[in-house]
Write a structure and sequence with these properties.
The chain is built from 7 helices and no strands. It is mainly alpha-helical.
């Protein structure tokens, strides 16, 4: 009886080791298909990142070239001829630069944050193009700031004191950086506060109907 029981057990163990396909179970082909789809999505994301990087490189290169050309063409004229006749003189000109700096930077950041290069490449190119005016204005403001930056003493030559050059600017308008920096900080704080209020009211307007519903 012991030998017959062992035989029965051995015979019953055979079918238990068989593998039956269960409907809906994961298979190797399904996993490979998912991996393939994920790989394609990763490739599309990498292509979008490369396109965005190439576009930003071209924009930065173009801005650098235009910045150099503008500095050679208008660097002396802007501070030497425009600033004295500006309302408030050179200090008023510096305050104007400071007030324009935060909106110029925001005009670059706002469109680029709405770009989605992975899903909407064509629309993202449009948002990048919408940021170009902000890039141009920021470049102009940087040109004015660098044009008024006085070099170190050992690098100051006679040309630094010529009309419209950095040493001449600081002789005509001492502490020029103070009103410009104060105007930039004030504009950034006020602008951020207004944006915060706008977003707060928008959230309240969107959540009010949902809370009033039964």
């Amino acid at each position: 009886m012991g030998s017959s029981a062992r035989k029965v057990r051995r015979r019953a163990a055979g079918p238990a080791l068989r593998y039956d396909h269960v409907p809906g179970a994961r298979t190797t082909s399904g996993r490979s298909g998912k991996r393939g789809g994920k790989g394609r999505r990763d490739d599309d994301g990498e292509r979008g990142s490369w396109r965005f990087g190439a576009l930003m490189f071209l924009v930065v290169l173009a801005v650098a070239v235009l910045f150099g050309l503008a500095d050679m063409a208008w660097g002396e004229t802007l501070w030497g001829e425009v600033a004295p006749g500006w309302p408030g003189g050179g200090y008023g000109f510096a305050i104007t630069i400071g007030l324009l700096a935060p909106p110029a930077v925001a005009a670059i950041i706002a469109p680029l944050t709405r770009a989605n290069w992975k899903k909407e490449t064509a629309r993202s190119i449009g948002w990048a193009a919408a940021a170009l005016p902000g890039v141009a204005l920021t470049s102009l403001l940087l040109l004015l700031c660098f044009g008024a930056t006085r070099p170190k003493r050992r690098r100051r030559g006679p040309e630094c004191f010529a009309h419209g050059e950095p040493c001449w600017i600081h002789e005509q308008y001492p502490y020029l950086w103070l009103p410009g920096l104060a105007a930039a900080v004030l504009c950034a704080v006020v602008g951020g506060w207004l944006v915060h209020l706008y977003l707060k009211r928008r959230r309240a307007a969107l959540t009010a109907p949902a809370s009033a519903a039964p």
